[in-house]
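re: that chain from earlier
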Amino acid sequence: MRVTILGCCGSIPGPDRAASGYLLEAGGFTMGIDLGNGTLARLQAVRDPFELDALLLSHLHPDHCADFSALTVLRRYHPAPPFDTRERRLPVYAPSQAPARLANAYAPHESERLETDLSDVFEFHALHHGVLRVGPFQVTAVPVTHPTESFGVRVTDGARTFAYTGDTGECPALDELAEGADVLLAEATWTHADDRPPGLHLSGRQAGELAARARVGRLLLTHVAPWTDGEAVLREARSRYDGPVRLVEQGAVYDI
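^ sequence. v structure.
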């Protein structure tokens, strides 16, 4: 199992940096996780987007799903797709309001919005707290604390376990999500301060404390905002977690 970083910038894309988007692969199966601003461009640089076997969206903030509209255009209007995209719709696992909200984002005006249905090329599945099977992966979706319906995911191929926090503030669900994972991909949007708004994001220190508490094998930090000092976030995490920890880089590939 391996993860490719399409983008890792937090809250908005940064200079030459896409927002959140990842590829998780095992056994010849490719699952996209999030598709934020700029990630479809990065995906095309490393892979044919038609090779996606499934897509999972942790939540519906634009920095995690904005390029879904561009993916819709690709799947609807590419002049020579490798297969019939209406016969082979892409499975999309996302919060319950995804079909309506993503249709709203795609439609350019109100009359089209009222008629827009993206299920011609996508097959939507609502995430909920529980286990689902996606290709070779067993995926456990765990609701986390954020201003909109949001999920972290724990993914195993039977041999290795990968956990991804999505966007979240501190909450008990994170321990369930991360416990004993081989790799934890944790958001760390900002440095730690007592006046940070609760229920929104993790600091580098909180990500490190989670990794230590959950006894994970390796910690990867992502979603650092472009106005945040990434090295300071990294130092915070290392001050709380003794295992291997890295600040992820766009384009990097990490074995799980």
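The longest helix spans residues 204-214.
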